[in-house]
Amino acid sequence: MTQYTNPDLIGDSPAWMSFIWIAFTVSMTLMLVGIYYLPVDWWIRGYLYMGTLFLTASTLTLSKSLRDRHEYERMVNRVKTARTEQVLNKYES
């Protein structure tokens, strides 16, 4: 008879988190500096800045929504597994 146990939660390592933040910061900085030095009118730069910021915000929102959906599905699967274990334990007894 196997009891249901929650799997250990393993988070991201500090090295991975550092890499993500460094990559984000470097890429955003280089993009903004690149737009600043483009030989175009100010309104074109403004449009590119606005596009960059909106794209970044929507990417962050999408990744958060995907993560939330994944966590929700994991929770539903845990509840279903716990219910199945409970039913099986009743019939084994």
From TrEMBL:
Domain of life: Bacteria
Keyword Nucleus: no
InterPro entries noted in UniProt: YiaA-like (IPR038972), YiaAB (IPR008024)
Any one GO cellular component localisation term in the record: plasma membrane
Annotated GO biological process: DNA damage response
Residue ranges of the TM segments: 19-38
Domain YiaAB two helix, first and last residues per copy: 16-68
Keywords assigned: Membrane, Transmembrane, Transmembrane helix
Record-linked PANTHER family: INNER MEMBRANE PROTEIN YIAA, INNER MEMBRANE PROTEIN YIAA-RELATED
Protein name (database record): YiaAB two helix domain-containing protein
Organism of provenance: Deinococcus deserti (strain DSM 17065 / CIP 109153 / LMG 22923 / VCD115)
